Amino acid sequence: MHTVQPIKDREKIEAMKKILRASSLRDELLFTLGINTGLRISDILSLKVGDVRNAKGAVERFEIVEKKTKKTRIVALNKKTRRLIERYLATERPNARNDEPLFRSQKGGGAISRQHAHYILNRAAKMIGVMERVGTHSLRKTFGYFAYKQGTDLAMIQKLLNHSSQAETLRYIGITQEQMDEVALKLDL
């Protein structure tokens, strides 16, 4: 296994969405859901259509038991992600039953594989010129990186990612020593 990196450039994120959208809304949703929730790919791929809809059929938030930690997590969905899920279900999966995989393989009724998800994301990243290693875990790392850059408390990001220490979270989201040095150098009291 090779270490993958977060995608740290918003323009590249938007370019990836555009490339993925050209392939299918499913692929764009896979990427968008990952970078906006911080869920592991195993949890994303295990989602059923009924998991993302509430009892009234609306898309707002959902509850998941994480495969790795066995912890229950309530996942709030931002407006952009909710709209994309609704559009995907309406256009590409209009007759989907609640017990069907959200990310259904085109080669059968099951969910796409982790390997296929990696292929989808890696191909799109290469097409837009991302030079760093990108994989399915890049989605989760991108979520953490942008949450941090937007000023979210590191302890909160640590909790969302279920990390044991803040140092682990900083390493995980790709905060380098140079970036930490830059904070001290810019501080001119």
Describe the structure.
By secondary structure, the protein is mostly helical. Helices cover 51% and strands 5% of the residues. The protein has helices at residues 10-23, 25-37, 41-45, 79-91, 114-127, 137-149, 154-161, 166-172, 177-186; strands at residues 61-65, 72-76. A two-stranded antiparallel ribbon has the order 1-2. A hairpin with a 6-residue loop joins strand 1 and strand 2 (72-76). The radius of gyration is 17 Å and the shape is globular. The protein starts with 9 loop residues before the first helix and ends with a helix. The mean pLDDT is 92.
C-alpha Rg (nearest Å): 17 Å
Q: In which range does the helix fraction lie?
A: 40-55%
Order of helices and strands: HHHEEHHHHHH
Distance between the termini: 44 Å
- Main beta-sheet strand count, sense and barrel state: 2 strands, antiparallel
Taken as a percent bin, the fraction of beta residues is 5-15%
Taken from the alpha-carbon principal axes, the silhouette is: globular
Question: In what order do the strands lie side by side in the largest sheet?
Answer: 1-2
Q: From the helix content, strand content and strand pairing, which structural class follows? A: mainly alpha
What is the helix tally?
Answer: 9
Keywords: DNA recombination, Plasmid
Pfam families: Phage_integrase (PF00589)
GO molecular function: DNA binding
Protein name: Site-specific integrase
Give the arrangement of secondary structure elements.
Layout: H1 10-23, H2 25-37, H3 41-45, E1 61-65, E2 72-76, H4 79-91, H5 114-127, H6 137-149, H7 154-161, H8 166-172, H9 177-186
Helix pairs in contact: 1-2, 1-5, 2-4, 2-6, 7-8
